[in-house]
Amino acid sequence: MSSMRNAVARRPHRERAQPASREKWGILEKHKDYSLRAKDYNVKKKKLAQLSQKAREKNPDEFAFGMLSQGKAGLGKHKPSTKDGVPTGPLSHDAVKLLKTQDAGYLRTVAAKGRKEIERVKQEVGLDSVTLSAKAGSHKRFADQDTGLNRSKKRMASGEVLESAYDIAASTMAEVAATEAVLIQELGDQENEPDMEKPKPKSKKALLAEQDASARLRTERKKRKRLQEMRVAKLEALKKRQREILAAADQLELQRAKMARTVGGVNKNGVKFKIRERKK
């Protein structure tokens, strides 16, 4: 009889699904899922309670030779405070101050090398004007030489116009191009001078030579311009690196001053404080 009852087609059983408004939270949690999650939570809670009790009841004088050997992780093991005569614990306050002093000296050395490199690249770019004396050492323009292009630029107290590396490079390339144009014009004037005799037509070989010379001149000009652009980009990168090094050195000096308690600052709660000097 039961076999006949089981042979009849029945409506398939479907579990209640997650409501449409909560589909973003995934499938609906069933009781078996909750049971597994609750069991795991209780096991971890019990383990944490045991570890907490063990830490409270720990004997600081407890010792075993196995504590000196580091296991897989080495957590909870006693380790010697020195290794081969070198302390392995945290550094003292004086040791940290000494290390920061050495770091500051290294940054000063790197900054000095960077300044020399910047001066060398400046000379390559052409910042030193040939019209100035050797003592000047930089490209300068004064108010009496001012034009409409640089009237709005910043000046120093002596009237010197502060120009960027791109402006100097552009003016240098313009001067070079103007010089080449003058030379080409002079050569053309010499060739166009009237002769008493009837000018002979140029041979094919001469025309090819002129074309070759013109192509070489254009190639050389492009190479020179590209090299100038590369030098300007290198100069800007060196200046950026120099600014970062100087900023790091300033930050290190501030840290050393705070460790020596000679300057104020802001504590971890955001409260400003300052070192008050003794009244005289």
TrEMBL record:
It is found in: Nucleus, Nucleolus. Pfam families: Utp11. Keywords: Nucleus, rRNA processing. Residues 1-24, 71-92, 188-213 are annotated as: Disordered. It comes from the Eukaryota. Residues 15-24 have a biased composition (Basic and acidic residues). PANTHER family: U3 SMALL NUCLEOLAR RNA-ASSOCIATED PROTEIN 11, U3 SMALL NUCLEOLAR RNA-ASSOCIATED PROTEIN 11-RELATED. Belongs to the UTP11 family. This is Uncharacterized protein. It comes from Exophiala xenobiotica.
